[in-house]
Amino acid sequence: MNSIVIDGRVVRDAEYKEVGANGTPLLEFTLANDTGYGEYKKTHFFKCKVWGKRATGLASHIVKGKPLTVRGEMQMQQWQGDDGKNRYSWDINIGELNFHMKDSTSGPSQQTYPAGDTQRDTPISKPPAFPSPGQQFDDDIPF
Fold this sequence. Notes:
4% of the residues lie in helices and 52% in strands. The chain is mostly beta strands and 143 residues long. It has one domain (4-114): CATH 2.40.50.140. It is globular and about 50 Å long. It starts with a strand and ends in a 29-residue tail after the last strand.
């Protein structure tokens, strides 16, 4: 299994293009992720890709500074540089993308969108809220 989840901020506005003979939509952006704190703080940069028709719809929403959480699959790209040496980069093919939004009445929240070329055209709904005090949990486990 190859899965990675990164939380960070978009470095610059996403770049939309169509690639290949069929003109497959591709949206590329870089996500900055901080680890550590103080003098030990480091920033890591991840090249992210969204393929298919989702790339078209998300292009205008992925802008510089936007906080996101992405979930996807790591893929290594290898090529030969002008100096003849092999070069490598790690890209994330995004499967799911979470926008972090702040609502003045309810505090921070997230909106989740599938990011692959899927049949779904609507956002994934938020999970149901936990019962309020005094309500009963449904103890049936669904698996």
